[in-house]
Specification:
The chain is α+β, with helices and mostly antiparallel strands. 28% of the residues lie in helices and 29% in strands. It has a single domain, classed as MucB/RseB, C-terminal domain (Phosphorylase Kinase, domain 1, 2-Layer Sandwich), CATH 3.30.200. The strands form 2 sheets. Strands 2-3-4-8-7-6-5 form a 7-stranded antiparallel sheet. It has a two-stranded antiparallel ribbon with strand order 1-9.
């Protein structure tokens, strides 16, 4: 019986290695490749579905890797306000994301950060004021409302990278399909 279990175990491990669900790395894990997302295309395709004007950030550093995009459709499909989310890995390998939403400030904070945090300060970027609030985990978030659109920047990136994304959002172009 033990021999049969050992044979079945070897077959199972062999199949896992063969189909890419396991690997052998005696020197330890290696850095994998980050996924790539079509952020500009995603923002453009989501714009008519969310019910508010979506902006494509412009002027981001060339060495930022676009690695995530998602959206929540117009109200009625979920309890969360409609939103688009675009994320990048910065040159230092840190994550940064911008969320654009047609929801109210508190509703966006609750949906995206899990809590409506109290402002911890304000940041001025090229004449545009962002309010700093606690983010998820140990991250911070910057949030602002412009007309009917609430924008939120969060992630593990540096303050300098937050400023770059804030500038890119302010100088962005409308997403049209």
């Amino acid at each position: 019986m033990a021999i049969a279990a050992a044979v079945l175990g070897l077959i199972a491990f062999g199949l896992m290695f063969m189909y890419g669900n396991a690997s052998f790395a005696p020197a330890g894990p290696s850095d994998g490749q980050a996924p790539t997302a079509d952020v500009d295309g995603g923002l453009t395709r989501a714009a008519p579905l969310v019910g508010f004007p979506v902006v494509i950030p412009k002027g981001l550093p060339d060495n930022w890797h676009p690695n995530s995009f998602s959206f929540t459709a117009a109200p009625g499909t979920t309890d969360a306000p409609a939103a688009v989310r675009a994320g990048w890995l910065t040159e230092q390998g840190r994550f940064i994301t911008v969320v654009q939403s047609g929801g109210k400030l508190g509703d966006v904070q609750q949906a995206e950060l899990g809590v409506v945090g109290t402002a911890t300060g304000q940041v001025d970027v090229d004449g545009v004021t962002w309010t700093e609030v606690p983010g998820r985990r140990s991250e911070v978030a910057w949030i602002r409302t412009d007309g009917d659109v609430t924008s939120l920047i969060t992630g593990s990136a540096s303050d300098e990278d937050f400023r770059k994304l804030a500038t890119a959002v302010a100088g962005g172009t409308p997403a049209t399909s």
